Amino acid sequence: MDKEGGNVTRPPLLTDSNYDYWKSRMIAFLKSIDSRTWKAV
Question: Domain map of the chain by residue range?
């Protein structure tokens, strides 16, 4: 479900060499959508 007027960018891309960086970026990405999103994961 999209928020009215919202703009969701693409999530960070996971490669074989950047897991730690990707993990922190993915957490931030999910929290930026809605603080409850991260709790659902």
Answer: 15-41
